[in-house]
Structures are given as C-alpha cells and as structure tokens.
C-alpha cells in the first residue's frame, strides 16, 4: 500500500496544478478570445487525469477502499483546489492504516 501512495500523491498535485492552469486557460479562451493556451493545456490535463485515475484505482485496491470512496477520490481531480485537500486526507488515512497494521 505504501508503494502506491507516492505515485498517487505526485499525481494528485500534478492534476491539481494542471487544473488551475486549465482554469486560467479557460478564462483566456472564453473571456479574451485567446484559445492558444487551452488547446495545449486541456489535453495535458486530460492525460494526467487518466493516469491519476489509474493511481487511485491502484491505491484503492491495495487499501481495500469501497467503490463510493474511490469514486469520491477520483472526482477530486475535477474541482479546482479539491485535489490538494483530497490528497492530504487520503495520505492521512493510508498512513494511519499502515500504522495500525504495524501495531
């Protein structure tokens, strides 16, 4: 489970940052008519989000999460700033589970 936590944490931050960049790109696109940044950022965010979903599945299967919890963690990458919060909560949950398993 510990081996699956690090990729999840990295991807949660990458997806969170890319989502914020995508929000800026959308403001530029629809607010100022400049679609250049969004044409580059949107596919990059989408690719990282797909990898994020795989890391959540990997961690969720190893940690034996319920499907509703796993889906909630997956949705964390779709709302700006939420992935940072979800990453912190998941890390605390996994670390406490690891500590309980060692005790």
What's the structural blueprint in terms of helices and strands?
Elements: H1 2-32, H2 36-63, H3 67-75, H4 82-102
Helix pairs in contact: 1-2, 1-4, 2-3
Domain DUF3817: 5-91
GO cellular component, one term: plasma membrane
Keywords: Cell membrane, Membrane, Transmembrane, Transmembrane helix
Provide tags for this entry:
103 residues; mainly alpha; elongated; membrane; cell membrane; DUF3817_TM; DUF3817 domain-containing protein; transmembrane
Question: Brief overview, please?
Answer:
With 103 residues, the protein is an all-alpha fold. 86% of the residues lie in helices and 0% in strands.
Structure description:
This protein has about 100 residues and is mainly alpha-helical. It has one domain (about 1-100). It is about 85% helix and about 0% strand. It has 4 helices and no strands. InterPro entries: DUF3817_TM (IPR023845).
């Amino acid at each position: 489970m510990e081996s699956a936590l690090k990729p999840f944490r990295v991807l949660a931050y990458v997806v969170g940052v890319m989502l914020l960049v995508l929000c800026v790109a959308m403001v530029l696109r629809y607010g100022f008519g400049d679609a250049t940044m969004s044409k580059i950022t949107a596919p990059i965010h989408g690719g990282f989000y797909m990898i994020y979903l795989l890391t959540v599945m990997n961690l969720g299967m190893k940690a034996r999460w319920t499907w509703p919890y796993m889906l909630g963690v997956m949705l964390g990458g779709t709302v700006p700033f939420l992935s940072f919060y979800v990453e912190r909560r998941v890390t605390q949950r996994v670390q406490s589970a690891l500590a309980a398993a060692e005790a």
